[in-house]
Amino acid sequence: EPEVTQTPSHQVTQMGQEVILRCVPISNHLYFYWYRQILGQKVEFLVSFYNNEISEKSEIFDDQFSVERPDGSNFTLKIRSTKLEDSAMYFCASDSGGLETQYFGPGTRLLVL
Amino acid sequence: AQKITQTQPGMFVQEKEAVTLDCTYDTSDQSYGLFWYKQPSSGEMIFLIYQGSYDEQNATEGRYSLNFQKARKSANLVISASQLGDSAMYFCAMGDGYKLSFGAGTTVTVRA
User: Fold this and answer.
1) Euclidean distance between CA atoms B32 and B50, whole angstroms
2) C or N terminus of chain A, fewer CB within 10 Å?
3) A49–B contact, CB cutoff 8 A
């Protein structure tokens, strides 16, 4: 059964450093998403991406965040200068559009020290 | 803007019994989807069940059923015949075609 994959599973970084989180969405899906979940809190939408463009982004997704689909399979989230409050689980998700089910990857647990 | 409310922070259920998790939502959209996800302690988000706003019949997937009451804007999840492996956090979410908005979640603990 196809699944969304994410790497790395865990990442520890120093405040101010850049991190890139990687995702491989389900191959026939066209819409890609990033969400984050701060420990013990609810899942929050960051950004959606379709046809090499951002479709929608939340207030959390400020200038320090960017997304990219560098090739036909990977989808990345870059945080330029990490802050302590960026520590969270980051989930990638994908679907085939409309109101179809979004399938989530296993997440990357980011810890900023 | 969409808002999802889950009022039960935690619930205990006896093994083999049924449990109902409450979810209410608020939206001005006519077309939307309602989803339930399970998050075990390992952290992944597992899709359980989906209900479209225009679906007249309640969705069912194995032991999961969604009690959809559109006029009351509620989408409660019913888990029948609870198993120890059902112990997890459960999130209700609403999709508008661009993103999912999640509730705060309900922790379910199944007792043997």
Assistant:
1) 11
2) N
3) no
Q: What angle do CA A63, B93, A55 make, to 5 degrees?
A: 35
Give the C-alpha separation, B38 to B45, whole Å.
6
Q: How confident is the model at residue A75 (pLDDT cuts 50, 70, 90)?
A: very high
**What secondary structure letter does DSSP report for A51?**
T
Nearest one of A55, A7, A60, A63 to A35, comparing CA atoms: A60
| Cα dihedral value B74, A91, B96, A31, nearest 10 | -150
**A97 φψ region: left (φ > 0), alpha (ψ -120 to 50), beta (else):** left
Contact predicate B87/B78, CB 8 Å: no
Q: Who among B45, B52, B95 is closest to A91 (CB)? A: B45
- Our CA-based measurement puts residue A102 at a distance from the nearest CA of chain B, in whole angstroms, of 8
**pLDDT greater than 90 at residue A99:** no
Give the H or E element holding residue B24. Answer: strand B24-26
Count Cβ atoms within 10 A of the Cβ of residue B84 and give its class: 0-12 exposed, 13-18 middle, 19 or more buried: exposed
**Per-residue confidence (pLDDT) for residue A71, from 0 to 100:** 87
3-class secondary structure per residue, B33-74: EEEEEEECCCCCCEEEEEEECCCCCCCEECCEEEEEECCCCE
- Decide: A18 and A80 in contact? Cβ < 8 Å: yes
B27 SS3 class: coil
Task: Tell whether B105 is within 8 A of chain A (Cβ).
Answer: yes
> Three-class SS of residue B86?
helix
